[in-house]
Amino acid sequence: MTFDLGGYGIYVWPAYGFAAVVLLGLLLVSWGALIRHERALAQQQLPRGTGRADPLIAEDGRGDGG
User: Fold this and answer.
1) Domain boundaries, the chain
2) Residue 39 burial (10 A CB sphere; 0-12, 13-18, 19+)
């Protein structure tokens, strides 16, 4: 197996390396965003001191959201 690719290996292998780094970066950024969004969603689903998890119920109990 030859890695010089007919003399073009000096251009091809760095391009593969750059593509691998970009894809790895996208994977890490996406994974971090997923974790942040899952945490935010979990916090939104918890009741906030009122014993209710429904954000549409107004603080005064009227149920009209305002």
Assistant:
1) 5-44
2) exposed
Angstrom distance (rounded) from CA 54 to CA 13: 55
- Chain segment 9-36, per-residue pLDDT in tens: 999 999 999 999 999 999 999 999 999 9
Task: Please give the Cα distance from 15 to 22 (Å, whole number).
Answer: 11
Q: CA torsion sign, 54 to 57 to 63 to 64?
A: negative
- Residue 62 DSSP one-character state: -
How far apart (Å, rounded) are the C-alpha atoms in residues 21 and 13?
A: 12
Average pLDDT over residues 40-45: 90
